[in-house]
């Protein structure tokens, strides 16, 4: 499979495993898992030709580890970023003292007023390192990196979760915890 095919399959998997499983007629369980064989069959029926080996290649080679197989490889889910209501089954974790968020300048006025919002997703995504935040912010233009005082947030009772692929998740970051 070439890089273009891998990227195309990855984008389609993101759509159906994070946002719109109904596009191909699958269902996600309460933790976001769906049956691998059913996923492959329904993708093929909708013209998105894929084998198990190709699916495994997409999951393993995804630079952000967006997807995960169950231990027995019978189920698959997105690691985070869902807009559908599921529970990733993550326990609250103590975050590092500082986390980072990549954005662009056009959102700064709103962030100054309202802080960071999760918008249509279940959680707000934060990065452990500046480099990852730069990559995230760069998707929409010239990145602006916000330094989040996550240690103080945690001490003040805000919950944080660490996804399987290392993304830190929380529900909201009030402006007072953001270093602009």
TrEMBL record:
Keyword Transcription (UniProt): no
Database matches in PANTHER family: PUTATIVE PHOSPHOTRANSFERASE (PTHR12684), TRNA 2'-PHOSPHOTRANSFERASE 1 (PTHR12684:SF2)
Family membership: Belongs to the KptA/TPT1 family.
Keywords tagged on the record: NAD, Transferase
Enzyme Commission number: 2.7.1.-
Transmembrane region(s): none
Cross-referenced NCBIfam families: PRK00819.1-4
Its biological purpose: Removes the 2'-phosphate from RNA via an intermediate in which the phosphate is ADP-ribosylated by NAD followed by a presumed transesterification to release the RNA and generate ADP-ribose 1''-2''-cyclic phosphate (APPR>P). May function as an ADP-ribosylase.
Pfam families: PTS_2-RNA (PF01885)
BP GO annotations: tRNA splicing, via endonucleolytic cleavage and ligation
GO molecular function: NAD+ poly-ADP-ribosyltransferase activity; tRNA 2'-phosphotransferase activity
Organism: Chitinophaga ginsengisoli
Protein name: Probable RNA 2'-phosphotransferase
Highest rank taxon of the organism: Bacteria
InterPro entries assigned to the protein according to its UniProt record, in alphabetical order: Ptrans_KptA/Tpt1 (IPR002745), RNA_2'-PTrans_C (IPR042081), RNA_2'-PTrans_KptA (IPR022928), RNA_2'-PTrans_N (IPR042080)
